Amino acid sequence: xxxxxxxxxxxxxxxxxxxxxxxxxxxxxxxxxxxxxxxxxxxxxxxxxxxxxxxxxxxxxxxxxxxxxxxxxxxxxxxxxxxxxxxxxxxxxxxxxxxxxxxxxxxxxxxxxxxxxxxxxxxxxxxxxxxxxxxxxxxxxxxxxxxxxxxxxxxxxxxxxxxxxxxxxxxxxxxxxxxxxxxxxxxxxxxxxxxxxxxxxxxxxxxxxxxxxxxxxxxxxxxxxxxxxxxxxxxxxxxxxxxxxxxxxxxxxxxxxxxxx
Length: 261
Ligand SMILES: Nc1ncnc2c1ncn2[C@@H]1O[C@H](COP(=O)(O)OP(=O)(O)OP(=O)(O)O)[C@@H](O)[C@H]1O
Ligand SMILES: [Mg+2]
What we know:
Layout lengths: L1 E12 L2 E12 L3 E5 L6 H9 L6 E6 L2 E2 L5 H7 L1 E4 L11 H5 L6 E4 L3 E5 L1 H14 L16 H13 L5 E5 L7 H16 L3 E5 L3 H7 L2 E6 L2 E7 L5 H9 L3 H10 L5
Helix pairs in contact: 5-6, 8-9
Bound molecules: adenosine-5'-triphosphate (ATP) and magnesium ion.
Adenosine-5'-triphosphate (ATP) binds next to helix 1.
């Protein structure tokens, strides 16, 4: 069943057209990889879903209803979450503070004075979120800035979970991670899927995309150049679609350019 449907999405910045009429469907609990060269329009397309950018033309439906008129807060309330590449964490603060940033559970003193942060409830709920993800953190009370990249990614995903999302968009979650940590984040994506949460995974690391997605959509120069079933494709085909050539020549050209950001 379709959760998200984009059709004919166009977006220009000034005179430069970045998206040329993109169609994209995401099903409930489906993990879709979004790949393409630097500047292909991936992040811009995702920001039209969260409402940070307004599409110039096209339609965006979530659970069958248009969300074009909704602001980012309203779209989040419907269950659309995006985790940005910089994770937007408060590095000096601990795990629970980050998970509930700005939305700390409060309790009333003697049932009358509102707005006191309920630290015990916050710690309990934060630990529960981490457990729900099947993840482990070295210490809940440490500044998250002292955590590894993968551990910080875990905190960001736990934070997203507190909004009860139906769709989580992740922009390059594994780009800066060591090999072991990559596996951890891929496991978290599988965990989200197992809970029925759909994921759009933007990544230049095609091995990660092939390992964890159900489908792979390739953006090229602002157009959806391919929509591939992961089980029926491979690295060569994906690379060929990204660079727009065909076969080994295209793959060699892509490998030659090395890891993108
Ligand atoms: N706010 C903006 N104003 C002007 N141009 C922009 C803006 N945001 C993106 N662009 C341009 O739109 C194009 C697509 O950018 P976008 O960030 O969507 O690409 P991307 O596929 O996410 O690339 P990468 O893999 O490098 O993250 C680029 O040419 C970029 O310079
Ligand atoms: Mg981007």
